[in-house]
Design goal:
By secondary structure, the protein is α/β, with parallel strands linked by helices. It has twelve helices and 16 strands. The longest helix is centred in the middle third of the chain and has 14 residues.
Protein backbone atom coordinates (compact mmCIF):
# COMPACT_ATOMS: atom_id res chain seq x y z
CA UNK A 1 0.00 0.00 0.00
CA UNK A 2 1.04 3.62 -0.44
CA UNK A 3 2.08 5.51 2.68
CA UNK A 4 3.99 8.60 3.75
CA UNK A 5 6.80 7.45 6.00
CA UNK A 6 9.56 9.02 8.05
CA UNK A 7 12.84 7.49 6.87
CA UNK A 8 15.07 9.83 8.87
CA UNK A 9 14.41 12.57 11.36
CA UNK A 10 14.33 16.11 9.99
CA UNK A 11 12.39 18.47 7.71
CA UNK A 12 13.13 16.42 4.60
CA UNK A 13 12.81 13.05 6.30
CA UNK A 14 9.33 12.03 5.05
CA UNK A 15 8.44 10.67 1.63
CA UNK A 16 5.84 8.62 -0.22
CA UNK A 17 6.63 4.93 -0.66
CA UNK A 18 5.10 1.47 -0.84
CA UNK A 19 4.91 -0.47 2.42
CA UNK A 20 3.28 -3.78 3.40
CA UNK A 21 -0.30 -3.68 4.59
CA UNK A 22 -0.38 -3.74 8.41
CA UNK A 23 -0.77 -6.98 10.29
CA UNK A 24 -3.94 -7.24 12.35
CA UNK A 25 -3.52 -8.25 15.99
CA UNK A 26 -6.15 -9.93 18.14
CA UNK A 27 -7.47 -6.60 19.45
CA UNK A 28 -6.98 -4.62 16.25
CA UNK A 29 -9.42 -3.02 13.86
CA UNK A 30 -8.11 -2.71 10.28
CA UNK A 31 -9.34 0.55 8.75
CA UNK A 32 -9.27 1.57 5.12
CA UNK A 33 -8.39 5.23 5.49
CA UNK A 34 -10.81 7.67 3.88
CA UNK A 35 -9.20 10.81 5.29
CA UNK A 36 -6.64 12.08 7.74
CA UNK A 37 -5.64 15.55 8.89
CA UNK A 38 -2.49 17.50 9.62
CA UNK A 39 -1.44 18.33 13.18
CA UNK A 40 1.59 20.23 14.48
CA UNK A 41 2.48 16.98 16.23
CA UNK A 42 3.19 15.40 12.83
CA UNK A 43 6.00 17.87 12.25
CA UNK A 44 7.34 17.44 15.78
CA UNK A 45 7.45 13.65 15.48
CA UNK A 46 8.94 13.83 11.97
CA UNK A 47 11.67 16.14 13.26
CA UNK A 48 12.48 13.81 16.16
CA UNK A 49 11.54 16.25 18.91
CA UNK A 50 10.29 13.41 21.13
CA UNK A 51 12.63 10.66 19.93
CA UNK A 52 14.10 10.12 23.40
CA UNK A 53 10.61 9.40 24.74
CA UNK A 54 8.65 8.10 21.74
CA UNK A 55 10.97 5.46 20.33
CA UNK A 56 9.64 4.91 16.84
CA UNK A 57 11.54 2.41 14.75
CA UNK A 58 12.54 4.01 11.45
CA UNK A 59 10.98 3.93 8.94
CA UNK A 60 7.46 4.51 10.26
CA UNK A 61 4.23 5.87 8.79
CA UNK A 62 3.20 9.35 9.92
CA UNK A 63 -0.29 10.67 10.68
CA UNK A 64 -2.14 11.07 13.99
CA UNK A 65 -5.79 11.34 12.80
CA UNK A 66 -7.88 8.76 10.93
CA UNK A 67 -11.39 8.41 9.61
CA UNK A 68 -12.36 5.44 7.50
CA UNK A 69 -14.15 2.12 7.11
CA UNK A 70 -13.46 -1.11 9.00
CA UNK A 71 -12.31 -3.89 6.66
CA UNK A 72 -11.17 -6.54 9.18
CA UNK A 73 -11.38 -7.12 12.93
CA UNK A 74 -9.16 -9.22 15.17
CA UNK A 75 -10.61 -12.25 16.97
CA UNK A 76 -10.78 -10.46 20.34
CA UNK A 77 -12.47 -7.33 18.97
CA UNK A 78 -16.00 -6.54 20.10
CA UNK A 79 -18.23 -3.61 19.21
CA UNK A 80 -16.94 -3.16 15.65
CA UNK A 81 -17.83 -4.94 12.42
CA UNK A 82 -16.64 -4.85 8.83
CA UNK A 83 -18.24 -1.88 7.11
CA UNK A 84 -18.44 0.37 10.17
CA UNK A 85 -17.41 4.00 9.66
CA UNK A 86 -15.01 4.96 12.43
CA UNK A 87 -12.58 7.65 13.54
CA UNK A 88 -9.55 7.55 15.82
CA UNK A 89 -6.36 9.09 17.08
CA UNK A 90 -4.19 5.95 17.21
CA UNK A 91 -1.99 5.64 20.27
CA UNK A 92 1.64 6.71 20.23
CA UNK A 93 4.00 4.24 18.53
CA UNK A 94 1.05 2.99 16.46
CA UNK A 95 0.27 6.08 14.42
CA UNK A 96 0.03 5.87 10.63
CA UNK A 97 -2.93 7.81 9.27
CA UNK A 98 -1.05 8.89 6.14
CA UNK A 99 -1.58 5.51 4.50
CA UNK A 100 -4.22 3.52 2.67
CA UNK A 101 -4.76 1.17 5.64
CA UNK A 102 -4.02 1.27 9.36
CA UNK A 103 -4.44 -1.30 12.15
CA UNK A 104 -5.67 0.36 15.36
CA UNK A 105 -6.24 -1.03 18.86
CA UNK A 106 -10.00 -1.24 19.40
CA UNK A 107 -9.74 0.87 22.57
CA UNK A 108 -8.61 3.83 20.45
CA UNK A 109 -11.46 3.64 17.91
CA UNK A 110 -14.99 5.06 18.01
CA UNK A 111 -17.94 5.16 15.62
CA UNK A 112 -17.76 8.21 13.35
CA UNK A 113 -20.26 10.91 14.38
CA UNK A 114 -23.22 10.36 12.08
CA UNK A 115 -23.60 14.08 11.37
CA UNK A 116 -20.07 14.39 9.96
CA UNK A 117 -18.64 13.23 6.66
CA UNK A 118 -15.54 11.06 6.83
CA UNK A 119 -13.48 14.07 5.72
CA UNK A 120 -14.96 16.23 8.50
CA UNK A 121 -14.48 13.46 11.06
CA UNK A 122 -10.79 13.20 10.15
CA UNK A 123 -10.30 16.76 11.42
CA UNK A 124 -11.62 15.89 14.86
CA UNK A 125 -9.85 13.19 16.93
CA UNK A 126 -6.57 14.71 18.12
CA UNK A 127 -7.85 18.24 18.76
CA UNK A 128 -11.11 17.09 20.30
CA UNK A 129 -9.37 14.65 22.64
CA UNK A 130 -6.85 17.34 23.59
CA UNK A 131 -9.64 19.81 24.33
CA UNK A 132 -11.52 17.26 26.45
CA UNK A 133 -8.45 16.13 28.37
CA UNK A 134 -7.36 19.72 29.10
CA UNK A 135 -10.75 21.14 30.05
CA UNK A 136 -12.41 18.13 31.69
CA UNK A 137 -9.66 15.81 32.92
CA UNK A 138 -6.93 18.29 33.87
CA UNK A 139 -8.67 21.57 34.70
CA UNK A 140 -12.18 20.32 35.64
CA UNK A 141 -13.68 23.49 34.18
CA UNK A 142 -16.91 24.50 35.89
CA UNK A 143 -19.73 26.87 34.88
CA UNK A 144 -18.80 30.48 35.49
CA UNK A 145 -15.05 29.97 35.34
CA UNK A 146 -12.91 32.03 32.97
CA UNK A 147 -10.83 30.33 30.28
CA UNK A 148 -8.32 31.96 27.91
CA UNK A 149 -7.54 30.05 24.73
CA UNK A 150 -4.69 31.31 22.57
CA UNK A 151 -4.87 31.07 18.77
CA UNK A 152 -8.63 30.55 18.83
CA UNK A 153 -8.97 30.17 15.06
CA UNK A 154 -6.58 27.20 14.96
CA UNK A 155 -7.57 23.56 14.94
CA UNK A 156 -7.10 23.13 18.67
CA UNK A 157 -8.19 26.62 19.68
CA UNK A 158 -11.44 26.48 17.71
CA UNK A 159 -12.34 23.19 19.41
CA UNK A 160 -11.40 24.37 22.91
CA UNK A 161 -13.53 27.50 22.55
CA UNK A 162 -16.59 25.41 21.71
CA UNK A 163 -16.08 22.82 24.44
CA UNK A 164 -15.27 25.43 27.11
CA UNK A 165 -18.45 27.30 26.20
CA UNK A 166 -20.43 24.05 26.36
CA UNK A 167 -19.03 23.52 29.88
CA UNK A 168 -20.34 26.92 30.91
CA UNK A 169 -17.12 28.92 30.99
CA UNK A 170 -16.60 32.52 29.96
CA UNK A 171 -14.16 32.22 27.08
CA UNK A 172 -11.54 34.68 25.86
CA UNK A 173 -9.25 34.11 22.92
CA UNK A 174 -6.50 35.75 20.93
CA UNK A 175 -7.00 36.02 17.18
CA UNK A 176 -6.46 38.40 14.28
CA UNK A 177 -9.03 40.76 12.77
CA UNK A 178 -10.07 38.42 9.96
CA UNK A 179 -10.77 35.59 12.44
CA UNK A 180 -12.86 37.57 14.93
CA UNK A 181 -16.21 36.73 13.35
CA UNK A 182 -15.35 33.02 13.29
CA UNK A 183 -14.19 32.74 16.90
CA UNK A 184 -17.21 34.69 18.13
CA UNK A 185 -19.47 32.30 16.20
CA UNK A 186 -17.77 29.42 18.01
CA UNK A 187 -18.57 30.97 21.39
CA UNK A 188 -15.74 33.34 22.32
CA UNK A 189 -17.02 36.05 24.67
CA UNK A 190 -13.86 38.17 24.56
CA UNK A 191 -11.59 38.47 21.51
CA UNK A 192 -8.19 40.16 21.77
CA UNK A 193 -6.65 41.12 18.44
CA UNK A 194 -3.02 40.14 19.02
CA UNK A 195 -1.84 42.52 16.31
CA UNK A 196 -3.35 45.50 18.12
CA UNK A 197 -3.40 44.64 21.83
CA UNK A 198 -1.31 42.85 24.43
CA UNK A 199 -3.64 40.30 26.01
CA UNK A 200 -1.75 40.49 29.31
CA UNK A 201 -2.66 44.18 29.60
CA UNK A 202 -6.39 43.72 29.12
CA UNK A 203 -7.19 40.33 30.69
CA UNK A 204 -7.03 39.25 34.35
CA UNK A 205 -8.54 36.83 36.85
CA UNK A 206 -8.60 33.76 34.63
CA UNK A 207 -8.92 30.23 36.00
CA UNK A 208 -7.23 28.52 33.04
CA UNK A 209 -5.03 29.51 30.12
CA UNK A 210 -4.31 27.09 27.28
CA UNK A 211 -1.09 28.09 25.52
CA UNK A 212 -0.13 26.77 22.09
CA UNK A 213 2.61 29.29 21.30
CA UNK A 214 5.15 28.97 24.14
CA UNK A 215 8.03 31.28 25.00
CA UNK A 216 7.12 34.84 25.95
CA UNK A 217 3.44 34.14 25.26
CA UNK A 218 3.43 31.43 27.94
CA UNK A 219 5.24 33.65 30.43
CA UNK A 220 2.74 36.48 29.91
CA UNK A 221 -0.11 33.99 30.21
CA UNK A 222 0.89 33.31 33.82
CA UNK A 223 0.15 36.93 34.69
CA UNK A 224 -3.53 36.84 33.66
CA UNK A 225 -4.35 33.95 36.00
CA UNK A 226 -6.05 34.43 39.33
CA UNK A 227 -4.26 33.00 42.40
CA UNK A 228 -4.24 29.21 42.11
CA UNK A 229 -5.01 29.39 38.39
CA UNK A 230 -3.54 26.95 35.91
CA UNK A 231 -1.57 27.52 32.71
CA UNK A 232 -1.35 24.50 30.42
CA UNK A 233 0.95 24.48 27.39
CA UNK A 234 0.88 22.03 24.50
CA UNK A 235 4.25 23.17 23.18
CA UNK A 236 6.35 23.08 26.32
CA UNK A 237 8.56 23.15 28.13
CA UNK A 238 7.83 19.58 29.27
CA UNK A 239 7.67 18.66 32.94
CA UNK A 240 8.00 15.55 35.09
CA UNK A 241 4.32 14.74 34.59
CA UNK A 242 4.96 14.23 30.88
CA UNK A 243 7.73 11.74 31.57
CA UNK A 244 5.47 9.89 34.00
CA UNK A 245 2.65 9.76 31.43
CA UNK A 246 4.98 8.08 28.94
CA UNK A 247 6.40 5.72 31.55
CA UNK A 248 9.88 7.16 31.21
CA UNK A 249 12.59 6.41 33.79
CA UNK A 250 13.09 8.75 36.75
CA UNK A 251 16.18 10.41 35.30
CA UNK A 252 14.10 11.53 32.31
CA UNK A 253 11.57 13.05 34.72
CA UNK A 254 14.42 14.94 36.36
CA UNK A 255 15.54 16.24 32.96
CA UNK A 256 11.98 17.39 32.18
CA UNK A 257 11.76 19.21 35.48
CA UNK A 258 15.05 20.92 34.69
CA UNK A 259 13.76 22.04 31.29
CA UNK A 260 10.64 23.58 32.84
CA UNK A 261 12.28 25.03 35.94
CA UNK A 262 12.13 28.65 34.72
CA UNK A 263 8.43 28.74 33.95
CA UNK A 264 7.54 26.74 37.07
CA UNK A 265 9.53 29.19 39.19
CA UNK A 266 7.74 32.11 37.56
CA UNK A 267 4.38 30.45 38.15
CA UNK A 268 5.17 29.78 41.81
CA UNK A 269 6.19 33.41 42.35
CA UNK A 270 2.81 34.50 40.99
CA UNK A 271 0.89 31.97 43.06
CA UNK A 272 -0.27 30.03 39.99
CA UNK A 273 0.49 26.65 38.42
CA UNK A 274 2.06 25.41 35.19
CA UNK A 275 1.65 22.03 33.47
CA UNK A 276 2.75 20.61 30.14
CA UNK A 277 0.11 18.66 28.24
CA UNK A 278 0.43 15.77 25.79
CA UNK A 279 -2.82 14.11 24.79
CA UNK A 280 -3.45 10.38 24.76
CA UNK A 281 -5.66 8.12 22.68
CA UNK A 282 -9.13 7.25 23.95
CA UNK A 283 -11.94 5.66 22.00
CA UNK A 284 -14.35 6.05 24.93
CA UNK A 285 -13.79 9.82 25.02
CA UNK A 286 -14.25 9.99 21.25
CA UNK A 287 -17.66 8.38 21.74
CA UNK A 288 -18.64 11.12 24.20
CA UNK A 289 -17.27 13.79 21.90
CA UNK A 290 -19.09 12.25 18.94
CA UNK A 291 -22.38 12.80 20.75
CA UNK A 292 -21.49 16.49 21.16
CA UNK A 293 -20.81 16.80 17.42
CA UNK A 294 -24.07 15.04 16.57
CA UNK A 295 -26.03 17.33 18.94
CA UNK A 296 -24.53 20.44 17.37
CA UNK A 297 -22.61 21.49 20.45
CA UNK A 298 -19.34 21.11 18.53
CA UNK A 299 -18.45 21.47 14.86
CA UNK A 300 -15.19 20.95 13.00
CA UNK A 301 -13.48 23.92 11.39
CA UNK A 302 -11.69 23.01 8.16
CA UNK A 303 -9.26 25.27 6.33
CA UNK A 304 -8.69 23.22 3.20
CA UNK A 305 -8.59 19.68 1.82
CA UNK A 306 -5.70 18.11 -0.10
CA UNK A 307 -5.72 14.83 -2.05
CA UNK A 308 -3.77 12.00 -0.46
CA UNK A 309 -0.92 12.10 -2.95
CA UNK A 310 -0.22 15.69 -1.88
CA UNK A 311 0.11 14.90 1.83
CA UNK A 312 3.58 16.45 2.07
CA UNK A 313 2.23 19.63 0.48
CA UNK A 314 -0.53 19.65 3.05
CA UNK A 315 2.06 19.41 5.84
CA UNK A 316 4.04 22.26 4.28
CA UNK A 317 0.85 24.35 4.06
CA UNK A 318 0.45 24.03 7.85
CA UNK A 319 4.14 24.45 8.68
CA UNK A 320 4.38 27.64 6.64
CA UNK A 321 1.47 29.19 8.49
CA UNK A 322 -0.79 29.41 5.46
CA UNK A 323 -3.90 28.09 7.19
CA UNK A 324 -6.52 30.75 7.81
CA UNK A 325 -8.57 28.77 10.34
CA UNK A 326 -9.04 25.23 11.56
CA UNK A 327 -7.59 22.00 10.22
CA UNK A 328 -6.10 20.86 6.92
CA UNK A 329 -7.57 17.54 5.80
CA UNK A 330 -6.01 14.91 3.53
CA UNK A 331 -8.63 12.94 1.61
CA UNK A 332 -8.50 9.66 -0.30
CA UNK A 333 -11.61 10.71 -2.22
CA UNK A 334 -10.82 12.27 -5.63
CA UNK A 335 -11.87 15.81 -6.28
CA UNK A 336 -11.36 17.19 -2.78
CA UNK A 337 -8.54 19.58 -3.67
Amino acid sequence: MKAFVVEKYGKDGARATEVPEPTVGDRDVLVRVSASSINPLDKMVRNGEFKQLLKYKLPFTLGHDVAGVVTRVGPAVHGFEVGDEVYARPRDLRIGGFAEFIAIDMDDVAPKPSSLTLQEAAAVPLVALAAWQVLVDRADVQPGQKVLVHAGAGGLGSTVIQLAKHLGATVATTANTRSEKLVRSLGADVVVDYAKEDFSKVLSGYDLVLDSLGGANLEKSLTVLKPGGLAISVVGPPDAGFAKQLGAPSFIAAVMNFLSRKVRKQAKALGVRYEFFFMKASGSQLRELGALYDSGKLRPVIDSTFPFDRTLEAMAHVEQGRTKAGKVVVSMVPGND
